[in-house]
Amino acid sequence: MSKKFKIPSATIGRLSMYSRYLKDADNKGIVTVSSRNIAEATGVTPAQVRKDLAYFGEFGTRGVGYNSRELYNYIMKILGLDRSWPVAVIGAGNLGRALCHYKGFAERGFNICCVFDNDPNKIGEKFADVEVFPMSALEEKVKVHNIKLGIIAVPASSAQEAADNMIKARINGIINFAPINVIVNENILLRRVDLAAQLEYLTYSLEDN
Amino acid sequence: MSKKFKIPSATIGRLSMYSRYLKDADNKGIVTVSSRNIAEATGVTPAQVRKDLAYFGEFGTRGVGYNSRELYNYIMKILGLDRSWPVAVIGAGNLGRALCHYKGFAERGFNICCVFDNDPNKIGEKFADVEVFPMSALEEKVKVHNIKLGIIAVPASSAQEAADNMIKARINGIINFAPINVIVNENILLRRVDLAAQLEYLTYSLEDN
DNA sequence: CAATGTGAAGCCCTTCACAGCG
DNA sequence: CGCTGTGAAGGGCTTCACATTG
Question: Is B168 a domain residue?
Answer without folding.
Answer: yes
